[in-house]
Amino acid sequence: MKFRVTDNVTNPNYKIKNGDAAFHEKGTEIYAIKGQPVLIAVKTPDKINGYSVYYSIENEEFSWHFDDMPLERVERIEIYRLYTQEGDKKISELKQEEDLSHFLQLLIDSKNQQGFNPNTAKGDPIFYNMIFYTGEPVAYKF
């Protein structure tokens, strides 16, 4: 990164240039991802596995939705509880074929409810991340 736009640019007409970053500090190292020429990674110690992955919003090739994931290639699933005092905390890891199959089937059979609102009468809801490893250079996160 050569220039951080946030906190340095007040002109709403500023055109971002190659080397500019919205929020990463000047000098932040950018990494290529093997076999993924339109993706980049930046070390982010507080993220699961230590990196944030980015792609251009102009690139429509990437579909990161559950329905786009190759379910038959899922070889491991990690489940993290988010926003704990220790940070994101791994609470489960599924590796056995039977466990993977059962968990994936649970997700396949679930129904998406538009406008769902969690019951907050007893406090804030608990949030989780699920990381699906398929042997590709980048895992799927939901």
Detailed description of the structure:
By secondary structure, the chain is mainly beta. The protein has two domains: 57 residues, no CATH class; 64 residues, no CATH class. The chain contains one helix and nine strands, in the order βββββββαββ. β4 and β5 form a beta hairpin. The two termini are 28 Å apart.
Task: Characterize the main sheet.
Answer: 4 strands, antiparallel
The beta-strand count equals 9
Number of domains: 2
Overall morphology: globular
Mean pLDDT: 84
Q: For the terminal residues, how far apart are their CA atoms?
A: 28 Å
Structural class category? mainly beta
- Oligomeric organization of the protein chains: single chain
Query: What is the N-to-C order of secondary-structure elements (H for helix, E for strand)?
Result: EEEEEEEHEE
Strand content: 25-35%
> Uncertain spans, ≥5 residues at pLDDT below 50?
none
Helix content: under 10%
Q: What's the tally of helices?
A: 1
Biggest β-sheet: strands ordered side by side in the sheet:
7-6-8-9
Give me the Rg, rounded. Answer: 19 Å
What is the gist of this entry?
The chain is mainly β and 142 residues long.
Task: Describe how the helices and strands are arranged.
Layout (H helix, E strand, L loop, with lengths): L2 E2 L15 E2 L9 E3 L2 E8 L7 E5 L20 E9 L2 E8 L2 H13 L18 E6 L6 E2 L1
Parallel strand pairs: 1-2
Antiparallel strand pairs: 3-4, 4-5, 6-7, 6-8, 8-9
